[in-house]
Structure formats: structure tokens, C-alpha cells
Write a structure and sequence with these properties.
single chain, mainly alpha, 2 helices, about 95% helix, rod-shaped, coiled coil
Length: about 110
């Protein structure tokens, strides 16, 4: 049976059917079809919301890690700077002592 003959048979079978019966069959189908895209959109929205939440948590964790590493680096920098200052101070005192020792020897 060709597609055209099937369509014609369908039209013939519908022609004798009362409108109320057709509405009872078509309206629920249309309602289902209306809800289907909404349900799909709702599922996609839920998935995207979950992705966004996960992305925000990851970004927050990365920011915290960055801040922790920056604070750690700052502390290490301060320690190294103190060591350098101590060595510089010690070198200065040695130079002064050396100069004073030379003056005493004269």
C-alpha cells in the first residue's frame, strides 16, 4: 500500500468520526507533545545547573589553592629576605671589625 493510499484511508476513517471523539484523541496527544519539549528543557536545565554548580566549586577550590600558595610563597620570601638581611648585617659587622682591627694594629 502506498503512502498516499494510506493517507486517503486515514482521511476516510476520520470523516465519519464525530468531532468530540477526535478532540478526545487529539487533545491528550497535543498536551503530551507540548510537555515533551518542556520536560527535555527541564532536564537540560538541571544538567546545566549541576555543571555550573560543579564549575563554581572547582573555581572556589582553585582560588583557595592559589591564595594558599601565594601566602606560602610570601612567607618563604620573608624568611629569605630576613636571612639576606642577617647575612648583610653580619658582613657589615665583619667589615667594621676588620677595619677596627687594622686601626688597632697601627
Amino acid at each position: 500500500m502506498t503512502r498516499m493510499s494510506r493517507v486517503q484511508k486515514g482521511v476516510e476513517s476520520v470523516q465519519g468520526t464525530p468531532t468530540s471523539v477526535l478532540c478526545e484523541q487529539v487533545v491528550p496527544l497535543l498536551q503530551y507533545l507540548d510537555r515533551k519539549p518542556a520536560k527535555e528543557l527541564e532536564l537540560k536545565n538541571d544538567a546545566l545547573h549541576g555543571h555550573l554548580t560543579l564549575s563554581r566549586k572547582l573555581q572556589k577550590a582553585l582560588n583557595q589553592l592559589r591564595d594558599d600558595k601565594a601566602a606560602e610563597a610570601q612567607k618563604e620570601y620573608e624568611k629569605q629576605r630576613e636571612k639576606i638581611e642577617a647575612v648583610s648585617s653580619l658582613n657589615y659587622e665583619r667589615a667594621q671589625n676588620s677595619t677596627l682591627a687594622e686601626e688597632l694594629v697601627r
